[in-house]
């Protein structure tokens, strides 16, 4: 088997056991909690405890910020692997939400000039959180099944239009801070307990595609969106479904049961506490269902037609 490593970054959410099984590597990302900079390794065994601490602080009104990965972080992470003779496939956080992808491309070009004969392939996942996790899992599975670096990179690029995210948030004020909804909508929505339903579109950006009210109705809407988008329907892609959440363990247990029933017994359904890198922007009471499904472009046409 060709000797290359599969990398992602801390915006991805995967079960810790998957990182270990497939030797998936991480380019760590940073966030700032009440003035303290923290480097987050999403593959670490204390992943959930780390996330729980952040979301507890967030509910208490903590000041939290994130930053993109600068080129030097890639250089310091990848240089030892290139020196050891490894090539690299990197599945990055969506270019539609961060400059991380562009910084990775620049760093990869610099390193390949410094290490002639070594190859780094950077693939824009157009995804985040558990969706980026599904993408990374698939690339790691391809590698384990003997797919070469270039074949794998091409395969992932060609299939990225099938990665689906359906999610909801509990507090519209976090989306307002990110420029996704107006202040008036955020205030009114919070007062009325309105929970927006969102997707990540074909450009890797957020789109609000509906709304519901209350916790139970939000979970039902997630299942409806999941069914509508054809989970497990793409030939050649694994029927794996990742659910991410912001320390909402009871709620996600309920959601997992609903997803498993809808997807069938042959689907692999896993739950993961959402990375702080993404959770800073979604806020608490967040749930997502991420999977390979129908092409995003067709879905958006349908949303516009019905909206």
Helix proportion range:
40-55%
Number of strands: 13
**End-to-end distance:** 49 Å
Mean pLDDT: 88
Catalogue the unreliable spans. 300-307
Largest beta-sheet characterization: 6 strands, mixed
Q: Which shape, going by the Cα principal axes?
A: globular
Which class do the helix and strand fractions yield?
Answer: alpha/beta
Residues in β-strands, percent: 15-25%
Counting H and I runs of at least 4 residues, what is the number of helices? 12
Report the radius of gyration as a whole number of Å.
19 Å
N-to-C SSE series? EHEEEHEHEHEHHEHHEEHEHEHEH
Query: For the largest beta sheet, what order do the strands appear in spatially?
Result: 10-9-8-13-11-12
Give a concise summary.
This protein has 12 helices and 13 strands. The chain is α/β, with parallel strands linked by helices and 307 residues long.
Describe this structure in words.
With about 300 residues, the protein is of the alpha/beta class. α3 (about 70-85) packs parallel to α4. It is built from 12 helices and 13 strands. It has a 6-stranded mixed β-sheet with strand order 10-9-8-13-11-12, with helices on both faces. A 4-stranded parallel β-sheet has the order 2-1-6-7, with helices on both faces. Strands 4-3-5 form a 3-stranded antiparallel β-sheet, with helices on one face. It has helices spanning about 15-20, 45-60, 70-85, 100-115, 130-145, 150-160, 170-175, 185-190, 215-230, 250-265, 275-280, 295-305; strands at about 5-10, 25, 30-35, 35-40, 65, 85-90, 120-125, 165-170, 195-200, 205-215, 240-245, 270-275, 285-290. It starts with a strand and ends with a helix. Residues about 300-305 have low confidence and may be disordered. A hairpin with a 5-residue loop joins β9 and β10 (about 205-215). Helix content is about 45%, strand content about 25%.
